[in-house]
Design goal:
The chain is α+β, with helices and mostly antiparallel strands and 107 residues long. It has one domain: Zinc/RING finger domain, C3HC4 (zinc finger) (Herpes Virus-1). The protein contains 2 helices and 6 strands. A hairpin with a 4-residue loop joins strand 5 and strand 6. Bound molecules: zinc ion (3 copies). The site of one zinc ion has 9 residues, from helix 1 and strand 3.
């Protein structure tokens, strides 16, 4: 199993051959934002459920359970920004939008 940028594909016990993500080396290290909010939702006056942070540029936006799904919109609008991590307290996982894969910290 290879690890790049601190993330690795989460093992899926239902699969004999594990899937791979070729975007892991694009993941950078970003500090948690000082203010936890979705800027796009604040500007639009909409609410969000959970927050995700793009692992390519550090942009914070709302999750797929939120009405506006700004994190997904960010990935769609910016080619190559396929990785986003959860910044909810107690959660340590990330997601690859290109592969629909769960990632976990490699360390
Ligand atoms: Zn990927
Ligand atoms: Zn939002
Ligand atoms: Zn980004």
């Amino acid at each position: 199993m290879s690890a790049h940028g601190g993330w690795t594909v989460a093992t899926d016990p239902g699969l004999v051959v594990q899937r791979t993500c070729e975007h892991l080396d694009q993941a950078g290290e970003f500090p948690l934002p000082a203010v936890r909010e979705c800027e796009d939702c604040r500007a639009a006056g909409t609410g969000w459920v959970h927050l995700r942070q793009c692992l390519v540029c550090g942009h914070v936006a709302c999750c797929d359970s939120s009405p506006k799904r700004h994190a997904y919109a960010h990935a769609q609008a910016h080619g190559g920004h396929d990785l986003a991590r959860s910044i909810e307290r107690g959660e340590e996982w990330a997601w690859c939008y290109a592969d629909d894969l769960f990632l976990r910290p490699a360390r």
